[in-house]
User: Which sequence fits this backbone?
């Protein structure tokens, strides 16, 4: 079985980013960048499946500027076998990312495509669902558990994947026909760190470079960002000395209880 | 052109989140000429939901797609239905719940348009505001797509009221798919108000130390009729179930009163609660970042403060 994982380069989750004063975007010039945390979980899932003998090849894909190869190298150090970098300097929107992934999936025919549920920069939570839609696959989003299972409906030629999903009211389990799309939630696994020998080995693993045009994908989006502003600041509060003080203030000043 | 709101429901009742999405739809309709707001109820044996939706103020029509194929509202079934109906609409909206987030990108992709996630304000019929970077920024986005497919941040819009007299129209479309099969669902049952619509929320973090200690929060929640939430750390540690997580990647809440107990105030947590009207923080570390957003901070050991608070209420 072949697995695709989509990894996005984003600002590190621990960095507090600010809006640019001209309102055109975020101040990212010297910010520390990293693999999107949900993509780390996606990579880990794929690597564990390979270690369990369920997969024989893992291909990591990233779309963005040249520097995204850093995140691909990380994915390779974590256990992916090769990388594909689709180079585009613009900020490619979710539908266009999905189209690129679909075009690659048509070339390579993976049995499973694992993505993060959400990019922590754009907070979109879209690509996996969109990819599943246009590739005609089932989707197991917000996965906290994903296990391969035999398929009794088609003579066992292709398997299924049973995905437990974190939903607002609790959990839901669905069984998907392969090939399928899975997006990861926080509790699917705890990603490992890359070891130094594996980081060295990753340098020799191949990364293919393509452009969206090579794949026949136009990256223009119907959605345009007009401006980016900081949210309203909350007014500074006060420190109360005792619980009685607190309850008094909530009753008489804030009037919320 | 009219606006379609896809109802969130469990075949028995209309979920409160739908009412907030309807308000957003009505705001958009205000920028259009004679736009009506319609509701799609896709499910199985869900006529009661359609009746409820028809009674919401401003709803002129409810499309009822009542068929076995929609019983579990899997996106593989509902998205093709929504795509087929979307041709008559300028906007399709649903709340940004896990159900909506699962469905709407699939609908948008089938329609070959962008999807606009989690809008917190309507600027005009094609321009919306949405939080990005864990709420550290608000992006104003404009859509040139023929259909605008949108999920709505429910805490940013009031709930629509009743008084509507919409007509119910049966929709005969069925969708046959073999991509996904529903296996089962494990839903938590609680007598408490729902986290995302409660007037008071009390949340516990890693400082609670274990799941048993959440009893201390429950006692207070009983007195305040509050919902109980948690930080990611508390969920990851297994103190409480994942559906209690408040934050960037959990639930967004904006109650009248939010009480954070033993929570440090990481940006990912703040992203889920900083639009609350009044924030109280109880933490033993005076330097915890949660105090920067708190209206009332109490620097104290929670194991001492919580029983006192329960007494004082
Ligand atoms: C991709 C990603 C997504 C994330 N999504 C979310 C999310 O949606 N929601 C979320 O909450 N987090 C999220 N996080 C995690 C977030 O970064 C923090 O790690 C988490 O919020 C910390 O939880 P906490 O405040 O309970 O724990 P800690 O940061 O460990 O804080 C515990 C606090 O309890 C206090 N305390 C300890 N004992 C006591 C006592 N006896 N009395 C009083 N106070 C005490 C301590 O002083 C401390 O401030 C995410 C992180 C990532 C990378
Ligand atoms: N530019 C990109 N390159 C590779 N993968 C991406 C890219 N953008 C999004 N993804 C994948 O899609 C997931 C969800 O992203 P989003 O829909 O943007 O929130 C991410 O966790 C990645 O797995």
Assistant:
């Amino acid at each position: 079985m072949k697995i695709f994982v989509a990894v996005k380069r984003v600002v590190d989750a621990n960095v507090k980013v600010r809006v640019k004063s001209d309102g055109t975007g975020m101040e990212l010039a010297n910010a520390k960048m990293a693999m999107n945390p949900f993509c780390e979980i996606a990579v880990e899932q794929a690597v564990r499946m390979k270690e369990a003998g369920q997969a024989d090849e893992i291909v990591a894909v990233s779309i963005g500027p040249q520097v995204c190869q850093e995140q691909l190298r990380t994915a390779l150090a974590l256990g992916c076998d090769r990388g594909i970098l689709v180079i585009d300097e613009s900020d490619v929107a979710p539908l266009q990312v999905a189209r690129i992934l679909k075009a690659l999936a048509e070339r390579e025919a993976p049995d499973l495509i694992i993505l993060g549920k959400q990019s922590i920069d754009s907070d979109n939570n879209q690509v996996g669902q969109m990819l599943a839609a246009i590739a005609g696959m089932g989707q197991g989003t917000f996965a906290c558990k994903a296990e391969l299972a035999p398929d009794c409906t088609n003579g066992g030629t292709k398997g299924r994947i049973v995905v437990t999903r974190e939903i607002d009211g609790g959990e839901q389990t669905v069984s998907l026909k392969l090939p399928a799309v899975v997006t990861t939630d926080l509790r699917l696994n705890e990603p490992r760190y890359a070891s130094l020998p594996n980081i060295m080995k990753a340098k020799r693993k191949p990364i293919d470079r393509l452009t969206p045009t090579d794949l026949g994908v136009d990256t223009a989006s119907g959605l345009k960002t007009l401006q980016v502003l900081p949210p309203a600041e909350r007014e500074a509060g006060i420190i109360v000395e005792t619980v009685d003080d607190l309850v008094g203030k909530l009753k008489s000043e804030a009037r919320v209880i | 052109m009219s606006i379609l709101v896809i109802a969130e429901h469990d075949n028995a009742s209309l979920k409160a989140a739908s009412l907030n999405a309807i308000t957003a739809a009505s705001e958009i309709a205000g920028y259009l000429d004679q736009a009506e707001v319609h509701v799609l109820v896709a499910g199985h044996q869900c006529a009661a939901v359609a009746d409820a939706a028809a009674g919401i103020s401003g709803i002129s029509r409810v499309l009822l797609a009542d068929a076995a194929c929609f019983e579990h509202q899997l996106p593989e079934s509902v998205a093709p239905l929504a795509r087929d109906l979307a041709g008559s609409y300028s906007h399709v909206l649903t709340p940004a719940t896990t159900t909506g987030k699962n469905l709407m990108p699939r609908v948008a992709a089938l329609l070959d348009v962008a999807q606009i996630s989690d809008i917190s304000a309507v600027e005009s019929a094609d321009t919306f505001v949405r939080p990005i970077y864990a709420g550290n920024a608000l992006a104003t986005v404009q859509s040139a797509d023929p259909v605008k497919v949108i999920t709505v941040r429910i805490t940013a819009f009031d709930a629509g009221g009743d008084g509507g007299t919409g007509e119910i129209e049966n929709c005969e479309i069925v969708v046959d798919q073999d991509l996904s099969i529903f296996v089962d669902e494990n839903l938590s049952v609680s007598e408490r108000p729902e986290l995302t619509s409660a007037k008071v929320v009390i949340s516990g973090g890693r400082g609670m130390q274990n799941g048993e200690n959440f009893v201390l929060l429950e006692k207070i929640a009983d007195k305040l009729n509050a919902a109980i939430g948690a930080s990611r750390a508390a969920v990851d540690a297994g103190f409480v179930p994942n559906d209690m997580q408040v934050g960037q990647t959990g639930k967004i809440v904006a109650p009248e009163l939010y009480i954070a107990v033993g929570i440090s105030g990481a940006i990912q947590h703040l992203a889920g609660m900083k639009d609350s009207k009044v924030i109280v923080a109880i933490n033993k570390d005076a330097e915890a970042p949660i105090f920067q957003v708190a209206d009332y901070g109490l620097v104290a050991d929670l194991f001492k403060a919580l029983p006192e608070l329960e007494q004082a209420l």
User: Anything to note?
Assistant: Residues A 6-8, 36, 38-39, 42, 61-64, 92, 94, 97, 115-116, 118-119, 122, 124-128 surround adenosine monophosphate (ligand 2) (CB under 6 Å). The mean pLDDT of chain B is 97.
